[in-house]
Design brief:
This protein is an all-alpha fold. The chain contains ten helices and no strands.
């Protein structure tokens, strides 16, 4: 976390609010990966900061991370709302990683709410978003290394399980194959 504080100091000294917001997002993501409950409030603040800046890439990333963190904390309404906002805002940006996670969270929230048909559509969109990343890689080993990254593997495992629960076994197998 010290590195993020250092970057935020540099951002303030150079009057670069976007750099400061990006550092705050990185700090919140790190907190979330280590299980810190404070990451949720840090992400909410990052969303507010990115909204004020009108910085779409940071905003989409922050909404996506907020959705993922809220879902892991069992706050499904907040998770679904943040994921929907990430998807909505991403229209003009075209990111892949935040969209992959936003669609995943919307799908998992829909599954938990018993909306299997809605879940299937969101989960397919999540798979397709990640598939764009996979399609850009040249060989099977590169795909496996990407899918094995500690920030992606749990989400891909959740996606495969969600696809199975939504009755999409073929799609689930495709997602599982990326990790092999």
């Amino acid at each position: 976390r010290g590195d993020f504080k250092k970057v935020r100091g540099i951002a303030k000294a150079t009057n670069n609010p976007a750099m400061g917001a990006q550092a705050r997002l990185g700090n919140a993501l790190e907190m979330g990966l280590t299980g810190s409950a404070g990451s949720l409030s840090e992400l909410q603040e990052t969303v507010r900061e990115a909204e004020l800046l009108g910085h779409v890439p940071i905003l989409v990333g922050a909404y996506s991370a907020l959705a993922r963190t809220a879902f892991r904390l069992g706050k499904n309404v907040q998770a679904d709302d943040a994921a929907a906002k990430a998807i909505d805002r991403d229209d003009s940006y075209g990111s892949v990683d935040p969209l992959f996670r936003a669609y995943l969270i919307r799908g998992l929230c829909a599954l938990q709410a018993g909306r299997k048909d809605s879940a299937a559509g969101y989960l397919r969109n999540s798979m397709n978003s990640f598939g764009k990343l996979v399609g850009d890689l040249e060989d099977r080993a590169s795909v496996s290394r990407l899918a094995a990254r500690p920030d992606l593997k749990p989400d891909l495992d959740s996606l495969a399980r969600g696809l199975k629960q939504a009755g999409l076994a073929t799609e689930a197998e495709k997602v599982t194959s990326w990790s092999r």
